[in-house]
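hey
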């Protein structure tokens, strides 16, 4: 080669032309053919940016090449390359092209050609190659100027990767640092919780601002990078915003996403076909208890240390754990004609089991929902005969054989406390609960409101029953709490005597006319009142109508 070291600063197409003109003749030897092929690869490459993370899209079985040049004039030129596969395993390699030192010695023409051929084959060498889906970093050092080629190939399917090249290894890192031991420890396992701990990243200890930990929980497998996790979520059919777990700024969520923000922790729950994928960012805390998991289920946990300013991240070594099995619920025996009041704690005890052995062919189950939301599941000798969400007062009349065993399982469907009254009795047994009207709503008449009175109405039945009306003065900010916390099974005994308005009996054989009205007087102007009506059956067990809030007129 008869050219100076200035070739390193020529545009690539001029460099290639110069090399091909001065160094390559007809490919009479295999070494010359190999060298010409490598130069062709350099010519069809893109320049890789220095100090910037580059996203590269790969088509299946089609290699993609990038090049970079190390500057002349530095005694030692350090550089590092980090490649992050975002889906399937890939193959990648680093090749280096170095010009031969010195010039060719004069002499016999044949001797020069052999010397050139030998130098051409030695000028291109492979520094590094890798195949897999792990995040891999190559750190190198060059004592003279050189041209480097990176080649990437995906043999499984179309995919994308990120590549980060830097020749400035002294001014900090784009990626947060991992500790010497990057494992995640499982320090506690419950029926619905798993507690994790991990060692602090040096980046958190040095630069706490803009650095935080993010946790990914799923039921499929561990992920080796954050972009691999996001790619997997997208492939499940979801539209996932970029770095969804990394931004604390509000954005629009998809219908299958739920965002929960509490105690400075951002949780994203993605509903995907393979189960839930949760993303939680918890600041710089290095312990976390994952709540609301399903019993007897294996979960995979990945922790990422994230630089919020650059969106760059590093992955701890993922782990997995299986939650404990749900303990067998305590079984309570149901007895004929005896009411059982069941209270379920939505956070601790979500299930309650009852058992009843039939002494008659026809059996009558009665459920009165007092508070919250409960689902009932009834089986006879192991086979399901009824399953539904309870609402108000619900009857189930079932026909079977003598000594059939009925199992009733009650399950709270919300985290707040729920309660229900349960009664089992033979079908011909006199019912303890009163006959109910078509609706338990209380109606008020706006046109009949005055500053001192309110007129309300409610439906009755064909059976003569007792109805008692109660009122309570409330404030605006108490309405929601009063309506949500009302115990629909509690009777007037829980009310203050001053709240009682009246009690009356009525019925009508014609259901179209089984309605009664009542005008409550002696009220204050412009005031909110909560009205309740209690219905009493033959046994004295009350049923509470839905509370009604009415405001008297301010001016009359």
């Amino acid at each position: 080669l008869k050219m100076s070291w200035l070739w390193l600063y020529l545009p690539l197409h001029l460099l290639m032309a110069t090399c091909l003109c001065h160094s390559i003749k007809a490919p009479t030897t295999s070494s010359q053919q190999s060298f010409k092929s490598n130069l062709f690869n350099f010519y069809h490459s893109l320049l890789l940016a220095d100090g910037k993370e580059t996203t590269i899209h790969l088509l299946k079985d089609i290699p993609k090449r990038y090049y970079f040049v190390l500057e002349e004039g530095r005694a030692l030129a350090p550089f590092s390359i980090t490649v992050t596969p975002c889906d399937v395993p890939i193959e990648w390699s680093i090749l280096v092209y170095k010009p031969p030192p010195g010039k060719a010695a004069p002499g016999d023409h044949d001797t020069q050609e052999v010397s050139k051929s030998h130098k051409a084959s030695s000028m291109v060498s492979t520094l590094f190659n890798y195949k897999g889906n792990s995040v891999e970093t190559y750190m190198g050092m060059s004592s003279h100027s050189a041209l480097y080629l990176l080649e990437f190939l995906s043999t499984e399917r179309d995919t994308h990767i990120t590549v980060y090249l830097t020749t400035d290894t002294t001014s900090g890192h784009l990626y947060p640092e991992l500790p010497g031991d990057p494992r995640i420890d499982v320090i506690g396992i419950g029926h619905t919780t798993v507690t994790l701990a991990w060692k602090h990243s040096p980046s958190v200890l040095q630069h706490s601002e803009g650095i935080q930990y993010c946790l990914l929980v799923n039921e499929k497998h561990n992920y080796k990078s954050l972009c691999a996790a996001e790619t997997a979520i997208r492939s499940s059919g979801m539209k996932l915003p970029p770095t969804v777990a990394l931004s604390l700024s509000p954005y629009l969520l998809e219908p299958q996403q739920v965002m929960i923000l509490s105690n400075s922790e951002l949780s994203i729950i993605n509903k995907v076909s393979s189960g839930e994928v949760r993303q939680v960012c918890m600041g710089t805390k290095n312990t976390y208890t994952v709540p609301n998991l399903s019993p007897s289920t294996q979960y995979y946990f990945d922790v990422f240390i994230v630089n919020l300013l650059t969106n760059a991240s590093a992955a701890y070594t993922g782990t997995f754990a299986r939650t404990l099995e749900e303990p067998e619920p305590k079984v309570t025996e149901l007895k004929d004609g005896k009411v059982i009041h069941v209270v379920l704690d939505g956070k601790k005890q979500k299930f309650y089991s009852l058992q009843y052995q039939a002494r008659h062919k026809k059996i009558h189950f009665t459920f009165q929902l007092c508070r919250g939301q409960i689902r009932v599941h009834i089986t006879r000798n192991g086979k399901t005969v009824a399953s539904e969400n309870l609402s108000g007062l619900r009857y189930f009349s079932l026909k079977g054989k003598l000594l059939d065993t009925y199992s009733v399982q009650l399950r709270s469907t919300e985290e707040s406390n729920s309660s229900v009254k349960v009664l089992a009795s033979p079908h011909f047994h006199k019912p303890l609960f009163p006959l109910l009207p078509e609706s338990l709503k209380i109606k008020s008449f706006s046109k009949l409101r005055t500053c001192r009175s309110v007129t309300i109405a409610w439906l009755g039945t064909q059976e003569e029953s007792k109805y008692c009306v109660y009122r309570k003065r409330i404030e605006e900010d108490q309405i929601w709490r009063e309506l949500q916390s009302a115990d629909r099974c509690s009777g007037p005994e829980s009310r203050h005597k001053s709240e009682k308005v009246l009690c009356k009996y009525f019925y009508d054989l014609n259901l179209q006319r089984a309605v009664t009205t009542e005008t409550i007087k002696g009220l204050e102007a412009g005031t909110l009142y909560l009205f309740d009506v209690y219905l009493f059956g033959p046994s004295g067990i009350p049923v509470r109508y839905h509370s009604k809030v009415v405001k008297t007129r301010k001016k009359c």
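The CA atoms of residues 492 and 498 lie 11 Å apart. The longest helix spans residues 109-123.
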